[in-house]
Amino acid sequence: MTKRILLVLVIVLTAMLAAPSVRADDANCCYHYVTVVSDDVGTDTVITKIYNKAGGTTSVVDLSGSPLPVVRASEPYAYTSEPPDSGVTIWDTGVAWFLAHGSVADWIWETPLTNGPASYAPADPRYDAAADTNGRVVLFKTTFNIPGTPVNAVLHVAADNGFEVWVNNSAHHRNPALAAGWELTTLHEAGLPGAAWNTVGQYTFSAANLVQGLNTLYVLAGNEYYAEDDGNGGTPAWFNNPGATIFQLDVKFDNCSYNPCPPVTLNMNIVSDDVGTDTVITKIYNKAGGTTSVVDLSGSPLPVVRASEPYAYTSEPPDSGVTIWDTGVAWFLAHGSVADWIWETPLTNGPASYAPADPRYDAAADTNGRVVLFKTTFNIPGTPVNAVLHVAADNGFEVWVNNSAHHRNPALAAGWELTTLHEAGLPGAAWNTVGQYTFSAANLVQGLNTLYVLAGNEYYAEDDGNGGTPAWFNNPGATIFQLDVTYTWSPCPS
Fold first, then answer.
1. Residue 167: inside a domain, yes or no?
2. Beta bridge partners of residue 376, listed in sequence order
3. Interval 47-100: pLDDT, tens
4. How far is CA 242 from the centre of its chain?
5. What is the CATH number of the domain that holds 403?
6. Considering all CA atoms of the chain, what is the largest pairwise distance in Å, rounded to the nearest integer?
7. CB count, 10 Å around CB of 23?
8. Assigned domain for 242 exists
9. How many domains is the chain partitioned into structurally?
10. Rounded to an integer, what distance in angstroms lies between the CA atom of residue 291 and that of residue 1?
11. Neighbours of 163 (CB within 10 A)
């Protein structure tokens, strides 16, 4: 049995802005987390405002129309050199929460060193020739997506030397050493204490402060004024007065329908053929002598064979070019199906070759006709959606799945398989009827399923309006089918 599995729906992954990790809560499968961290990767965190302290005054530079990207700040490594993140730095040990919790957050700023603004053109409103001395305040904006119903969010944040934070322009917190309006001061010790740099703020934002979809975290971070007149010493200032901020926001949300590893939809094609043992014959209705003898083969099923197709009735090479069956039952040819016509024997006179004592024996099966029950087993490795069957038989069929959903050729009446298969019971012209039937998910199961096709070949003799000899040449028998199964499957390990 040939099976072809095709991916028909590309896995759709939920976009997580600024979210290196999404994890499920072990205590409740409906809870998930989005972790948002400060870093210099991508554009989820940008700079939208600068409080320039050049000349000891405050000039607010609005960059919301054209935000600046952030950079990774050069960390003070024991104040002997400035390689960024070379081993454990003073920042790492002074603001220990991030190191202790294995955070992937980075220290970020406008420029790697605090003297960076001196490199701007003098006409640039961001320019400050002595920014490492005058200090500076930078507003960072981070957007993040919550793909479910928010529960809460916990923020850990620090800045060298102080910070103020809010989410969605509502919930608001600041370093406890700072007073309202600190960002507008000269950033001297009274407005921005230097020792505040190693304070880690922990703040919880409730569901009322968050929304499903896009949210915004703002971090207003300040670097102190650094000179002897404010009690600071050591030169150059940029070496002794680094500036940066670092944060991690853990967002908890509830959405039982959310799946970080969503299922995909697949198609599986089940076709009639003579390859393997997925399709077998489990019953034969032997019409020898004009009576019906039911031969139960379920204990020892017969393999199917490829039927010899009637090629313009001039020769019998199987599948040599396009045959009368192919053009008469055009759906399979038109849809490029790889299904084959199958039967008990290649020609309808085959049962004459059995031993006379064999219950399958019929010396005139090509005249008397015959009914054969085909059983096909197939596995659905996911959750069934539906299955669409296309089927034909020379001359008639009846089908069902898992002993439930049931259909038959519209030209046939119930019990046709027990008739003598004359025209009244099995019309010869019914052979080129292609049945199309849809089986719902209720008719299918995850795992093993069974398709049954009961196919009949007509009685063929002059007393029933048929002519032409030999009968096996003019009365071929076979069935053909294709079952297209749609199901969903999760690529994630359970």
1. yes
2. 279, 451
3. 999 999 999 999 999 999 999 999 999 877 544 443 444 567 778 788 889 989
4. 45
5. 2.60.120
6. 123
7. 12
8. yes
9. 2
10. 33
11. 26
